Amino acid sequence: MVELVVENLEKRFGNFTAVTDVDIHVDDGEFIFLLGPSGCGKTTTLRMISGLEMPSGGRVFIGGRDVTYMRARYRSVGMVFQDYGLYRHMTVHNNIAYPLKVRRMQRREIAEKVGRVAETLQITDVLSRKPDSLSAGQLQRVAIARMLVREADVFLMDEPMSHLDAQLRGQMRAELRHLQKSIGTTTIFVTHDQLEAMTMADRIIVMRAGRIQQYATPLEVFENPANEFVATFVGEPQMNVFDVTLRADQGGVVAEADGFVVPLNAAWAEANGLHRRVGEIVRLGIRPEHISLARQGDEGHGINAELYSFEPTGAENLYVLRVGGTELTTRNSTNDTRHLGKVEGTMLGMHFDPDWIYLFDPGDGRTIA
Ligand code: ATP
């Protein structure tokens, strides 16, 4: 059983705090993603777990052992970096074998292990070649093979797919997820690509400015974001968020935006105490797929908006609409909206699905309902 525990981890570079208050508990065999924008502290966190960077505060435990100040090579950790870190003068075979040679493993055993991982990653035919002659996808497989061959307690991967084209990334997502589950080694994967995290992770750690924003399953992060940052970082196209004033209306509460009013579910408003916030300005969030469109005047689609731009993607249509000072993106199935046309300037009716409306605190961004 290899649990990975990080307590109160902190890293300062001079006066700058790159990582702070980071607590992570990874169960044995879990596939965890560190997700966040560039510069939020993902790589620094990973380097402290690997031993390549010493923390300014906090602790790291691997399999119950305190490894906080232990050098990288004494930790049982396998890594893949963004630039792969392969030796150009060595063949693929020797690159993969290198960590085993350092451990003075018998030649026969090395050949056997390299052969096995090469087969798993389908790179047997390039074992005698040098890295310079390989494609991006092959290089990535070699780097992963070199990590796997060590049979470490924990695997750490830093943006290993960033050099692959979109098609190969899609294919590798499924393959890597399958591989991680079949090997069962506790793994942390760093990415700024929310799709990668959403499709592969058991749980996602969303980071911003050195701090953890949320640590939960992909579905939980998507459906119950902890704050406006998480809500808008996860999901494509991103969630629409705009200012509204909460108003009392016929015993219930509505959200008044610039030029339109959004009805709120009465039971939900009651359960979240929104009547106590009447008069307050809050941020209202709704994902593009939770706004349905109809012809202007159609029943149940009482919010009128002007079509500003139209982007067909095949199965779906993206519409950008303007109402008052607010611009909203909607995402609808082509079948449902075929009759609406795509002429910019057309007036359309919108319906906000009341089950998927979020409200955020305008100050700290935390989800209030
Ligand atoms: P990216 O996705 O761009 O790699 P990241 O989330 O991995 O970003 P880090 O590389 O961990 O971010 O960097 C976090 C912050 O710490 C950044 O502002 C970076 O400039 C800073 N930083 C990282 N390493 C050092 C260093 N050795 N000295 C000073 N500042 C550093």
UniProtKB/TrEMBL annotation:
One GO cellular component term: ATP-binding cassette (ABC) transporter complex, substrate-binding subunit-containing
Keyword ATP-binding among record annotations: yes
Listed GO MF terms: ABC-type transporter activity; ATP binding; ATP hydrolysis activity
Occurrences of domain ABC transporter (ranges): 4-234
InterPro entries, A to Z: AAA+_ATPase, ABC_transporter-like_ATP-bd, ABC_transporter-like_CS, ABC_transpr_MalK-like, ABC_transpr_MalK/UgpC-like, Mo/tungstate-bd_C_term_dom, NA-bd_OB-fold, OB_MalK-like
UniProt keyword terms in alphabetical order: ATP-binding, Cell membrane, Membrane, Nucleotide-binding, Sugar transport, Translocase, Transport
Source species, domain of life: Bacteria
Any one Pfam family match given in the protein's UniProt record, by short name: ABC_tran
Topology of the protein relative to the lipid bilayer: Peripheral membrane protein
GO process terms (BP): carbohydrate transport
Compartmental location: Cell inner membrane
Family annotation (Gene3D superfamilies): 2.40.50.100, Nucleic acid-binding proteins, P-loop containing nucleotide triphosphate hydrolases
PANTHER family documented for this protein: MALTODEXTRIN IMPORT ATP-BINDING PROTEIN MSMX, TREHALOSE IMPORT ATP-BINDING PROTEIN SUGC
Family recorded in the similarity comment: Belongs to the ABC transporter superfamily.
The protein, known as: Multiple sugar transport system ATP-binding protein
Lineage per the UniProt record: Bacteria, Pseudomonadati, Pseudomonadota, Alphaproteobacteria, Hyphomicrobiales
